[in-house]
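This part of the workshop introduces the protein records we will be handling. To make this concrete, we reproduce a full record directly below.
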Amino acid sequence: MPLLELREVASFYGSVQALKGISLRVEPGEIVTLLGANGAGKSTTLRSISGLMRPASGEIFFDGQSISRLGAEAIVRLGISHVPEGRRIFPGLTVTENIMLGASGRARVSKAQLRSEVGEMFAIFPDLERLEKALGWSLSGGQQQMLAVARGLMARPKLLMLDEPSLGLAPIIVQQLFAVIRDLQQRGMTILLVEQNAHMALSVAHRGYVLETGSLTVEGSPAELLDNEDVRAAYLGGARPDAAK
């Protein structure tokens, strides 16, 4: 049974239809990437899953349960963590405080347990440990992205959704971030990844979907997407990268 399944989901912004009956699935332990140009509906898909907007029609199932009509807080408690585009950390809070906020939806978590879990986040993101008392506004873009992911992990999710994690980051930081994403999957995390850097996304994904103007047009393994001429032309610069799997 898929951990996440969308069946003919349609979503609107006012009178504008952003998703046109999309269906996709994410199996436990997978990294699934959603590719597409700006405005294709990638972020809308994540917002529809996480309860930030309610689908007009269709159904979303998580762990066998329909979540289409649940609010965002209830969906987080079920085990979906959404790391939005643009990081959205709290600039006036410290790194440690930002991380701890990720556990705010969990009941009966002791301070000792929170401190232990913050230590786990520092083990995953060593650069953040030396900045534990630094305010959010003082961090670089890469450090803020690592912080946003750490905060998302503090919800102890079954599914981690990442929206454009490489946006605006230097190439070396992108490499470090995707190494963390790969490591999280190897630890058992299921990940739905929205990403415009198709080369990097396909280097870590098990499967991918291509979204165009609110409709899913292509589905396949990374190898299948890399061999698709239309996908290569639109998202991969027209050439099949030797370094990609």
User: Anything to note?
Assistant: Confidence is low (pLDDT under 50) at residues 241-245. The first strand starts at residue 4 and ends at 13. The beta strands are 4-13, 16-26, 31-35, 57-62, 65-66, 80-83, 159-163, 190-194, 207-212, 215-220.
